[in-house]
């Protein structure tokens, strides 16, 4: 039997000087709950005061495992380069910014020199202004050209909300320049009647990689005047372009560069990123051009109080196999958000899942209604999948201060300028240190102090981090992982490029070393045809439809209310089997629905409004076969390997869990087709002698491997820019390809995303942290904080905690002194 774990499918304004302090004073009601405030809120409490109020009561105080105080920092001013137009400098001054920070001026200088640059500084450090100053100056120069359109610029954001927010900011900043700067959003929400105007007259077009891939590049003749004059390409929040999505965006940008060169333009790339490891290398890999990095943050920062918070164990409940149950991070976050809203503290609670955001919003509103009936309307949820008009209404309410509390997915982490926040709640480790600091940085206003709280989920990595704060506060952020040469990524983009403009020998270098071999395969598949010296697209359909750059594949599944026919939203096709299977609970705008029917052929899930006292979690089975072992190293008689695998997965059932506690109420079978995935994996084998030395007998071998697999999946995000939903695993006491006990961890994306390769390169440190996390857990036989997984297809059976510790200790005792990448 194989045991498996399958993956599921900021804007920072212009800088602190442009921020207007916002003070909210909400009367505080007297409450009797533990840790609830009982006195009127200070209109501007310090972060320590807010945290003290949250932790009142003996049970609350014990939940804080660590508090980190990040001291305030003074800013360092500079002057704008003299090549920035005086009217642009005056417009910036009228926005309240008299002098730039040093990093803003340095970035502008490089841009004016024609050098591509990435600004990787903290949240709210004014990265937007660093690239807008040279962009606005170039656009204003172009507006004075006697003939032609003048210079143009393209802005790329990972989300629609971020592009819309940037347009608002640019309009306000450039208002004194009159008609010289004409910003316009061009995305899926842009009305058809406006699109022609954007193509012909806008000189600052704000869009996203998806629209560039499907809407702009395939229609490049209609965009010829814009592309011919393209001076700058701005790539905001570029650290989000990682894994498969980042690899797709890298190829979209190469297609953009190719078409620009066809029209005689060679744009400069200006990138903004959260603090990242080696941002120049990541930006160069993303764009394909040499990029200079600026990482010295010269902006001021108020004090940040960062607390690590662990929910308590629920002594009256037992989970699967009798394991102790910890209070859910969702319930804990709802409690904290309730208290913060009552205090009048403007707060965003970041949640990893759409369902989690909806749950926290609903629970908080219910608790606020019992305190003050005017408060529930000041809390809402914000997530992807909402209709455009719903998103815009929430963004306006947040900007106006009408909302005091928001439960949001990462769509808001990058989505809108949320200046004016006092506190951020982070519900579970977001997967990378870069995302953690990006979310925490949303709080703080005009140099004032801010509170950030990381609430641990019942998860090996979260438990490890709240008890090892040095892993968060004493380690650099991760390197961005992407692989543009992934053949599953590159092949459809070669077809799209050939459809846009026939491919020639000169294009081989642009698209990478794997291009020549792939062109031969695409010819054999009759997707491309070589005529003379160029390859041509042979089909009538759009080549850009061959791939979904978000990595999901397939068209989104529409979620429709059966009784009215109303479209509630969408879910990615790759996530449909787990998210909207028959019987699944679906949350939307605070309302609960049950899925009555999933039609995979027509991509529709029919739902009915309901009020069940449970949530649902899908379960699956997985098998894996090795296609090719690319590299392997010995660990004594054990082997550590990396290569290509084929994974077959099938969702077979779902659990019903009680709300708040997560207690399992029952399991129901499902009849869904299996799916096959070809991807990359890291795996390790052990021998009979090593098992004997670790005192692992046949009775506990399956549980030992299974426990090590679960925990290693949970710990990998500490070493690669992924989260546990990006990766999967399988453990087998006797695998048919290795003929040995084997543990696999694989990328959950076709062709791989670079995560398994990163695991191979850091295997010793990764598996050491895995062993330490299991050993440090206080439970007796295993729990969700160490070796149990909520998505385990085998119901977390069998698992053997002590065996996993002994086996990993034995394996690591024979690991080489250097990591594979160092060797």
TrEMBL record:
Stored InterPro entries: DEAD/DEAH_box_helicase_dom, Helicase_ATP-bd, Helicase_C-like, Helicase_put_actinobac, HRQ1_WHD, MZB, P-loop_NTPase
Keywords, comma-separated and alphabetical: ATP-binding, Helicase, Hydrolase, Nucleotide-binding
Residue segments, region Disordered: 1-59
Name listed for the protein in its UniProt record: DEAD/DEAH box helicase
Hydrolase in keyword set: yes
NCBIfam families: DECH_helic (TIGR03817)
Superkingdom: Bacteria
Species assigned in the record: Streptomyces virginiae
């Amino acid at each position: 039997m194989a045991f498996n774990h399958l993956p599921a499918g900021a804007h920072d304004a212009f800088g602190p000087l442009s921020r207007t302090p916002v003070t909210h004073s909400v009367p505080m009601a007297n409450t009797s709950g533990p840790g609830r405030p009982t006195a009127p809120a200070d209109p501007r409490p310090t972060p320590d005061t807010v945290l003290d109020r949250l932790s009142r009561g003996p049970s609350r105080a014990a939940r804080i495992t660590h508090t980190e105080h990040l001291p305030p920092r003074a800013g360092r001013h500079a002057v704008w380069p003299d090549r920035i137009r005086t009217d642009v400098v005056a417009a910036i001054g009228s926005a309240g910014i008299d002098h730039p920070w040093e990093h803003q001026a340095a970035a502008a200088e490089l841009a004016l020199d024609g050098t591509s640059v990435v600004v990787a500084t903290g949240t709210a450090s004014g990265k937007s202004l660093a690239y807008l100053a040279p962009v606005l100056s170039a656009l204003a120069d172009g507006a004075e050209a006697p003939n032609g359109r003048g210079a143009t610029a393209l802005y790329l954001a990972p989300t629609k909300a971020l592009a819309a927010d940037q347009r608002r900011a640019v309009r306000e900043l450039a208002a004194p320049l009159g008609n010289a700067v004409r910003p316009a959003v061009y995305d899926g929400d842009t009305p058809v009647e406006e699109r022609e105007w954007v193509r012909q007259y806008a000189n600052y077009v704000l869009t996203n990689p998806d629209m560039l891939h499907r809407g702009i590049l395939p229609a490049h003749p209609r965009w010829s005047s814009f592309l011919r004059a393209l001076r700058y390409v701005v790539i905001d929040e570029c650290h989000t372009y990682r894994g498969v999505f980042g690899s797709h965006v890298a190829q979209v940008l190469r297609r953009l560069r190719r078409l620009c060169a066809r029209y005689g333009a060679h744009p400069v790339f200006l990138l903004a990123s959260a603090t990242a490891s080696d941002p120049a290398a990541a930006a160069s890999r993303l764009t394909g051009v040499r990029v200079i990095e600026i990482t010295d943050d010269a902006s001021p920062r108020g004090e940040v109080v960062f607390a690590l918070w662990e929910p308590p164990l629920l002594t009256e409940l037992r989970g699967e196999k009798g394991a102790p149950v910890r209070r859910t991070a969702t319930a804990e976050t709802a409690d904290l958000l309730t208290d913060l809203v009552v205090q009048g503290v403007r707060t965003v609670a970041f949640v990893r899942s759409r369902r989690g955001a909806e749950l926290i919003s609903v629970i908080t509103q219910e608790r606020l209604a019992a305190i003050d009936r005017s408060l529930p309307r000041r809390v809402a949820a914000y997530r992807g999948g909402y209709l455009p008009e719903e998103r815009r209404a929430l963004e306006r309410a947040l900007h106006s201060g009408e909302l005091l509390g928001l439960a949001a997915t990462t769509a808001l982490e990058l989505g809108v300028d949320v200046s004016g926040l006092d506190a951020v709640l982070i519900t579970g480790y977001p997967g990378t240190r870069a995302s953690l600091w990006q979310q925490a940085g949303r709080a703080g206003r005009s140099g004032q102090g801010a509170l950030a709280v990381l609430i641990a989920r019942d998860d090996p990595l979260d438990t490890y981090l709240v008890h090892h704060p040095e892993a968060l506060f004493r380690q650099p952020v991760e390197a961005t992982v992407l692989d543009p040469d992934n053949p599953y990524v590159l092949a459809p983009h070669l077809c799209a490029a050939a459809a846009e403009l026939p491919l020639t020998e000169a294009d081989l270098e642009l698209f990478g070393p794997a291009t020549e071999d792939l062109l031969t395969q695409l010819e054999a598949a009759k997707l491309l045809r070589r005529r003379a010296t160029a390859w041509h697209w042979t089909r009538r359909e759009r080549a850009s439809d061959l791939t979904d750059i978000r990595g999901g594949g397939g068209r989104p599944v529409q979620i429709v209310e059966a009784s009215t026919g109303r479209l509630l939203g969408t879910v990615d096709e790759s996530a449909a089997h787990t998210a909207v299977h028959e019987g699944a609970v679906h949350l939307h705008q605070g309302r609960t629905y049950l899925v009555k029917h999933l039609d995979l052929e027509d991509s529709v899930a029919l739902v009915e409004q309901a009020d069940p006292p449970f949530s649902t979690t899908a379960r699956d089975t997985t098998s894996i076969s090795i296609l090719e072992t690319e590299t392997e190293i010995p660990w004594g008689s054990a082997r550590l390997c990396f290569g290509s695998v084929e994974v077959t997965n099938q969702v077979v059932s779902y659990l019903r869990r009680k709300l708040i506690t997560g207690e399992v109420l029952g399991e129901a079978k499902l009849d869904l087709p299996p799916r096959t995935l070809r991807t990359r994996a890291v795996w390790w084998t052990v021998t009979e002698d090593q098992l004997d030395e670790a005192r692992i007998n046949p009775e506990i071998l399956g549980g030992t491997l299974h426990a090590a697999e679960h925990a290693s999946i949970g710990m990998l995000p500490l070493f690669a820019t992924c989260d546990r939903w990006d990766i999967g695993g399988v453990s087998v006491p006797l695998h048919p390809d290795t003929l040995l006990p084997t543990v696999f961890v694989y990328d959950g994306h076709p062709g791989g995303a670079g995560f398994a390769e990163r695991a191979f390169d850091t295997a010793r440190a990764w598996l050491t942290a895995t062993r330490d996390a299991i050993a440090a857990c206080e439970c007796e036989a295993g729990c969700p904080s160490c070796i149990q997984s909520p998505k385990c297809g085998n119901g977390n059976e069998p698992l053997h905690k002590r065996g996993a510790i002994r086996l990993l200790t034995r394996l690591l005792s024979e690991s080489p002194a250097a990591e594979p990448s160092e060797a």
